[in-house]
Amino acid sequence: MSFLYLSALALGLSVVVPLILHLRRRQTDRRVSFPALRYLSRAEDARSRSLAASDLLLLAVRIGLLIALALAAAGPLIGRGGARDHEPTDLALIVDNSASVGRLDENRILFESLVELARAALAAARPEDRVWLFPTVGEPLAAGVSAGQAAPALGQLRPTDGAADLAAVVARAAAALPADGGRRREIQLLSDLQASALRTVPAAASDAAPLVAYAPRPPAEPNGALVDVELTGGTTAPSGTGHGVIVRSARAGAAVPPDPADDAAAEADIRLELDGRLAGAARAPWGASAILGLPELGPGLHEGRLEVDPAGARADDLRYFAIRVVPPPTVRFHGDANGFVGLGIETLRDGGRLGTGGNGAVAVVDGDVSDGAPWEGAETVIFVPPADPVDLAAFNQGLASVGIAWQARVDAGSGDLGLAEPEAAFSLSGVRVRQRYLLRTTGGGSAADTALLRTEDGEPWLVRTDSDDRMALILASPLTATASDLPAHPAMVPFLEALLVHWSHLATWPFADFGAGRPLTLPEWASEVESPDGTVRGVEGGARFTPLGAGVYAVRGTGSDGAGAETHFAANVPEEEADPTPMGRRELEELFAGRPVFTAGPDASAWEDGIFRARRGRDVAPWLIALALALIGIELYLATPGRSRRPSADGEGSEVTSGASN
To answer: Can you spell out the DSSP letters for 600-657?
Structure first.
């Protein structure tokens, strides 16, 4: 037992008052000589014994009353107490709203169960507690408020299709709690403890705030998901040619059977919708990729989605994409027509992937820039450096004449290097670079300049930049067999198409889809974003925007030419959300080394028993006050005058003395 106000026990000394009064009690009855009273001696003795017992009982009641009041004033605490019986606490309450908590948990969405447990934690908070409320995806909802103020903020929390980084949000929550030595600190984590969501290795904890993590029931069934979609022609594709989508599925979770007996359960049935209409279907084993062809698409914006039968969480059963179809570009080539670049362009033209006629919307300058200005009238110019370093000065002069703030410099020590994988529908695996120039800005580079490809040492190998009224793409290596393996590689023609279409002026933002819940940078001309549910939100060009839900978003604004501009982008559930396998307590303790870690659940009672670790015992003052009230009633009854019984016919219980006592 402990006491909140130990000094109040001094009130217990007041028990001496009834003791003193009892000891000083004087008999004031007057005796009257009356011989007949000797027959009543037996009744007198019985009454004397009754009065003595009544006085002792009254004394005990008064002493008990004073002791009960003194103990109640001292605030006695017994045992560990309940969740509300805790010391003043600064609480960081984290509620998981990522895509993985959209699965069923005993005929109920897990997210709803987590919110209900969060409400129980707020209900157990005391008036002097302060609450910080964090979702795992999105910005904090409350900071340093009372539980009553945090409850409406919790009601605004909605599930998202994003991925959680639990280690990062725990670190952020710990940093938000003030280092007040007079208050306890605690972090409560309500999550499915998805192992893939604990991907950030936290720094060693510098505070002693314990982490109480909810331990949910493991998923009852494996989760089937579509984890990746890839457009064979990229997000910008020329019209008049065949295009398709490559979709990959996955089936994960602790309950996945190693070898399903049912063939149907071992395969995923995938459906393709394009512009709101069913456009195809395929069946493929879980974990494999399937290719679905797209119908011929006219120029403009198109959007689609792929869907698999529900299995586990619903959000990752869908995968969205957006594609802009443009007329095939016309290309003007300046260089050796029998070289690798010239032959590759002719191959694309023969396949209908490039237009014919005209001066060319895209100009390709292969090494030689001595003949005038072959890029006049082109909206995109692709510069391929010369194989002979002697011609590098003329190449750099050509770049400067177009207003390009980049130069190529000789790199004598590059050696044999590989290329990083591009964000495109082709792979450069196995391509080695033996000759490379160093691409350097001349001081006037734009913030919009982008290194589209890099060598494995991090140096830019393909740079996209804007100059005057056109776009320029600059390679760091000649496209010759001696400079690299690319000209003889199967990726050569797809690489050229990417240069001419997907990375040229024809390819408008975005150049790929995005992960839901992850911030992205909007184009400079953007003024509003329409979400998949039809909600329109005003934005600033170049601002950061976080798509919380999966689907296709529309971005609108005014282009640099003053005309209206619009593009679409797709946001999808991140791949890591597909595996619902939870992390165990031992793994949690290892991950958050240096911080006390406790788990509680899966029942609500177990959660309430585990939170607010700094308890001070159950307050029994209300029970003592109730006891004191009962003792007051007993004392009034015992001390009421005239309570003695009237004389009976046989004289028993009759009065034999007169007077009073005190």
So the answer is: E-SSHHHHHHHS---B--EE-HHHHHHHHHHHHHHHHHHH-TT-SPPP-TTSTT----
Residue 318 has pLDDT above 90, yes or no: yes
Under 8 Å CB-to-CB from 316, ≥6 apart: which residues?
99, 223, 225, 226, 227, 573, 577, 578
Whole-number pLDDT of residue 529: 97
Read off the tokens for 166.
């639990």
169 within 8 A of 197, measured Cβ to Cβ: no
Phi-psi region of 606 (alpha: psi -120 to 50; beta: other; left: phi over 0): alpha
170: number of CA atoms within 13 Å, CB side?
Answer: 33
Q: Are 439 and 450 in contact (CB under 8 A)?
A: no
How does DSSP assign 53-92, residue by residue?
A: HHHHHHHHHHHHHHHHHHHHHH-EEESS--TTSB--EEEE
Q: What is the pTM of this model?
A: 0.73
CA 1 to chain centre: 42
Residue 167 has φ and ψ, to the nearest 5°, of -60, -40
Helix (H, G, I), strand (E, B) or coil at 331: strand
Residue type, 516: A
Q: What Cα–Cα distance (Å) separates residue 225 from each residue in 111, 271, 578? A: 19, 13, 6
Amino acid at 46: A
End-to-end alpha carbon distance in the chain:
39
Assigned token pair, 537: 């939100």
218 touches 582 (CB < 8 A)? yes
460, β-bridge pairs: 454
The least confident of 19-28, 372-381, 648-657 is 648-657
Query: Distance between CA atoms of 319 and 273, rounded to whole angstroms?
Result: 10
Contact 561, 503 (CB under 8 A): no
β-pairing, 223-231 vs 277-285, is unpaired
Distances (CA, A) of 638 to 35, 51, 59, 464, 499: 33, 11, 10, 99, 103
**Residue keyed to tokens 């100059």:** 467
Q: Is the pLDDT of residue 659 over 90?
A: no
Contact in structure between 257 and 221 (CB atoms under 8 Å):
no
Helices (H) and strands (E) in the chain, counts: 11, 34
Which CA distances in Å does 18 have to 48, 132, 142, 395, 592? 21, 53, 55, 111, 60
134: tokens are 């964090």
pLDDT digits (tens, 9 = 90+) for 628-646: 788 788 778 777 765 544 4
Q: How far apart are CA 244 and CA 256, in angstroms?
A: 30
For the CA atoms of 449, 453, 457, 459, the dihedral, rounded to the nearest 10 degrees, stands at -30
Q: What local confidence, expressed as pLDDT, does residue 527 receive?
A: 95
* Calpha distance 341→151 (Å, rounded): 64
**Does residue 159 contact residue 190 with C-beta atoms inside 8 Å?**
no
Half-sphere exposure of 32 (CA within 13 A, CB side): 9
